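Good day; I would like, with your permission, to put a structural problem before you. What I wish to show you is a protein chain and, alongside it, a tokenised description of its three-dimensional fold. I would ask you to consider whether the tokens describe a fold that such a sequence might reasonably adopt. You will find the record immediately after this paragraph:
***
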Amino acid sequence: MTAASEPASRPLEGFRIGVTAARKADEQVALLRRRGAEVEWAAALSLEPNHVEVGELLAATKEVLAGPVDLFLATTGIGMRTWLDAAAEAGLYDDLVAALGHSEILARGPKSVGVLRRHGLRELWAPESECFEDVLAHLRGRDLTGKRIVVQEHGQSLSMSAHALRRQGAEVVTVPIYRVASADDPEPMFGLIDLIADCKLDAVTFTSAPAVAALMEAAFSVGRRDDVISAFQSDVVAACVGPVTAAAFEMWGVPTIVPERSRLAGLVKQLETELPTRRDGVDVRLADGRTLIVHTDSLLLDGVPVELSPAPASVLMALLVNPGHVVSRRALLAALPSGQAGSEHAVEMAVARLRAAIGTKAVLTVVKRGYRLAVG
């Protein structure tokens, strides 16, 4: 590391950040520490998390080859590479590539696309979001009666997605490439969970959806999952490397921040921007040109104080976690003060009151997804 490559300032000085990564953890910890952060590291997953059951994988491969493939859904680059390597060792590579090559291929993201193309396979479509849910949404309106679909799993079972496709008339074969294992020693994770639950961290970083699931499972095992969720909804930032990782938090109603590009450097840069604003106050320019300044105990709209009751204030803070990005109704419902989170109607009422206070066009409805703050 040369002096020229050192950051000119230490924008994360005074912040304490948890890291859950197993792979490339040293790189992430070093990036954060060079920017002044105090880092607490506890791997959520095993350092060798991707356990491949070769017999199970080859059995699934032979099932795939037992009939024509109409649609193939590729989900991860490492999964595709592992599958094709295993097929090659078993003498099934040419047959597998030929079978997949005759199908309509949908890929979840650029990593799976890269592996496919290196093996002469070409995707027909991939979502910009890199979310598997958007792949399923792409198929939702189609008549899949009689179609044979192969789904490459990505460390976690996609059986529910397979059932959804079967309800559309498809025959579905799932291919379990590997299973993700939790950390071999859970004690560091338990310590990190206590720090989160007690709001002794400013942020925690996540680089995979299985890491989110592993942390929540560990938190449940020690009776602190509700405390962890509450902390993430209020004082601790859940920083995710990409939308797939962030989606794993949706079921818990946890707001997240996500960089524009799913890269580690982008994640660190996002923290450099986000954490100081939480300490110093949030200054947001709305799409209509007005300025919204939010501090812990005050809200100014173009310099004029605005009073908000707890429910709309909670909604505003959830929307401000990532200004301009959609926050689901479930996440907003979970963010409401205790005793008010009874139904989605409570969210609608809180949003209505927020709009009455800061303007009807300041909070936009995104059909079937949630709400977002209209920023300029």
In short: The domain at 3-49+182-276 is CATH 3.40.50.10090 (Rossmann fold). The CA atoms of residues 42 and 192 lie 7 Å apart.
